[in-house]
Design goal:
single chain; about 300 residues; alpha+beta; six-stranded antiparallel beta sheet; six-stranded mixed beta sheet; 6 helices; disordered N terminus
Length: about 300
């Protein structure tokens, strides 16, 4: 029996200060380039900053070396920065570093032409930046990523896959007969189905797999380091999670909620040598989605 799903919506009215002791990590916030505002949380241990595929802090810019600098994060969250012999050098607060430097909250880092700011784990500025970045990259209706963020991440992952020879797959899905939900039960009911189904799918994904709303009832999932067979298995698990859930639609004027079963149609595609753009991979998955819909819905094609 499926347990009721609880949906929590962040309405943006909680105090930033409530999150200061929530186990946050020291971080770098990117200040330059198309991904300006992106936050990189710094886990304990060694982390390389650069544009190489093995960098933990991966920044796509021709002015930064593949292995530009190294961060050592200690058990007490002290962060030490060291240049790795980069061509364009590393600067902290406009001073070129010659050896290891202990970072302080608010330090401005310049690695080649890439500008970042360091914040410690109790920085209100980092939380504010994170709130602004979330507003720019998340879909308000569902809480998953928006189309723009998905497309930007897809470009980065294609570059990474080409550099390393790794695999990359995309899942496209939409909600079957969703218009009937809006028409028959109202847009509030449609909003519940959108949010709840997105929550179900997000819960079924692994860390690093990116879910985004790319249209009205259309969603896409980016699966780095994932071939077609694994992507098809993931897609089937998403389909089953939604089909097996008992939704409850809100009743009008305090009336009891109406039970509802929702299904999704799913298309899957993997990156191949003939594809040079992210749009081609997305279109390939979208074609498979329409094959699934034309084949009777509530199925996976790839």
């Amino acid at each position: 029996m499926t347990e009721p799903l609880t949906i929590e919506v962040d309405r943006g009215d909680s105090s930033l200060f409530q999150n200061l002791n929530a186990g946050s990590l020291p971080c770098l916030i990117l200040y330059s380039g198309p991904e300006a505002g992106r936050r990189f949380d710094l886990d304990r241990g060694l982390q390389v900053v650069g544009r190489g595929a093995d960098a933990q802090v991966l920044v796509e810019s021709p002015g930064i070396s593949r292995r530009h600098a190294e961060l050592q994060v200690g058990s007490n969250s002290v962060v030490v920065l060291r240049d790795l012999g980069s061509a364009n050098r590393t600067h902290v607060n406009d001073r070129r570093i010659e050896g290891p430097v202990v970072l302080r909250d608010g330090d401005l880092l310049r690695l080649g032409n890439v500008v970042m700011r360091f914040h410690d784990q109790r920085s209100i500025d980092a939380l504010l930046h994170d709130r602004i970045y979330r507003l720019a990259t998340l879909d308000e209706g569902t809480g998953v990523f928006n189309r723009r963020h998905f497309q930007d991440t897809l470009k980065l992952e294609i570059r990474r896959a080409r550099q390393t020879g790794g695999e990359l797959s995309v899942i496209c899905y939409d909600l079957d007969r969703f218009k009937a939900v809006n028409d028959g039960h109202g847009h509030a009911a449609g909003d519940v189905v959108l949010r709840a189904s997105a929550t179900l799918v997000q819960a079924a994904l692994l860390p690093g797999q990116v879910l985004a709303r790319v249209g009205g009832e259309e969603f896409a999932v980016l699966l780095p380091q994932c071939g077609l067979d694994t992507a098809l298995a993931t897609a089937e698990s998403l389909r089953a999670a939604v089909a097996g859930h008992a939704f409850t639609l809100p009743g009008a004027r305090g009336a009891p909620g109406a039970p509802h079963r929702q299904t999704i149609s799913v298309g899957v595609a993997s990156l191949c040598d003939a594809m040079s753009l992210g749009a081609e991979l997305l279109e390939a998955a979208d074609r498979q989605l329409y094959i699934a819909k034309n084949g009777g819905r509530n199925r996976v094609c790839g």
